[in-house]
TrEMBL record:
<dbReference type="InterPro" id="IPR019207">
    <property type="entry name" value="DUF2092"/>
</dbReference>
<dbReference type="InterPro" id="IPR029046">
    <property type="entry name" value="LolA/LolB/LppX"/>
</dbReference>
<protein>
    <submittedName>
        <fullName>DUF2092 domain-containing protein</fullName>
    </submittedName>
</protein>
<keyword id="KW-0732">Signal</keyword>
<dbReference type="Pfam" id="PF09865">
    <property type="entry name" value="DUF2092"/>
</dbReference>
C-alpha cells in the first residue's frame, strides 16, 4: 500500500471522519465530518471539510497556503514554499491544524505509519463500502491503529482508525475513504477568494474558529 500511494502523482478522494473527545465526566462524544482531498505531488493540495459547525477549504499551490472559512466568508494566507510533506509539518507545528489523513498523504507513508510499531496482527478480510479489504492491526508506543486496505491492483486505504492509548478512555479517530481515484491529470490548485471575502492576517487564524477540529461547545469552559 505504501509503495502504491507513493507512486501516485495525482490522487483524489472523498472521506467521512469521526473524532472522539472525552468529557471530564468520562463521556465520549463524537465529531463527524466529511470532505474531499485532491493531491498532486510533490507540491499541490486542495482539501475541503464540512460538519455541523464548519465548512472550510484549504488550498496549497506549492508556495502559498490559503485557508477559507465559508461561514465567516474570510480567509488567511501564508507563504509556505515547499512540498506537501513540508506543508503537513507546518500546519501541525505552526498553525496547529491537521490535514485529513495526513499520515497517508506524505511521500513516505511506510515510515510515517510504522515508527515505534511494536506489534502487527493480520486480521484477515473485511468489507468497507462493498470493497473487500485486508484488515491489519498495529500497536505503537502511544497509539493502537488499524487499517483496511483494498485488495487488488490498487491497494488504497479504505478505512483508518487510531486509538489514543495515553488519553483517558482511549478516544479514537476514524477515517473512511470513498470515491478513490488515482492517476489522471492534475486539478486546479489556485485559490480565488469569493466575492466579498475578508482577508485576515495569518496570525489571526484563530478568528476562523470553524477551521478548528472542535466546535466551541466542545471546549473546556464553554457556555454550552
Amino acid at each position: 500500500m505504501s509503495d502504491y500511494l507513493a507512486s501516485q502523482k495525482n490522487i483524489s478522494l472523498s472521506y467521512d471522519s469521526v473524532f472522539e473527545v472525552v468529557t471530564d465526566q468520562k463521556q465520549k462524544l463524537q465529531v463527524a465530518t466529511s470532505g474531499t482531498v485532491d493531491l498532486s505531488r510533490p507540491d499541490k493540495l486542495r482539501t475541503t471539510r464540512k460538519s455541523g459547525f464548519s465548512d472550510t477549504e484549504t488550498v496549497f499551490d506549492g508556495k502559498t497556503l490559503s485557508i477559507y472559512g465559508k461561514g465567516k466568508n474570510a480567509y488567511v494566507q501564508a507563504e509556505v514554499p515547499g512540498t506537501v510533506d513540508n506543508l503537513i509539518d507546518q500546519l501541525r507545528d505552526k498553525f496547529h491544524r491537521q490535514l485529513p489523513g495526513a499520515d497517508l498523504l506524505g511521500s513516505n507513508v511506510y515510515e510515517a505509519l510504522m515508527t515505534d510499531v511494536t506489534d502487527v496482527k493480520d486480521l484477515g478480510s473485511g468489507v468497507i463500502d462493498g470493497k473487500e479489504c485486508d484488515h491489519l492491526a498495529f500497536r505503537a508506543k502511544d497509539t493502537d491503529w488499524q487499517i483496511w486496505i483494498a485488495q487488488g491492483a490498487a491497494p488504497y486505504p479504505c478505512r483508518y482508525v487510531i486509538t489514543s492509548k495515553t488519553v483517558d478512555q482511549a478516544p479514537e479517530f476514524s477515517m473512511t475513504i470513498r470515491d478513490w481515484k488515482a492517476g489522471g491529470g492534475a486539478g486546479d490548485f489556485s485559490f480565488k477568494p469569493p466575492a466579498g471575502a475578508t482577508k485576515l492576517d495569518a496570525k489571526d487564524l484563530e478568528t476562523l474558529k470553524e477551521t478548528s477540529d472542535l466546535p466551541e461547545n466542545y471546549r473546556i469552559g464553554a457556555a454550552e
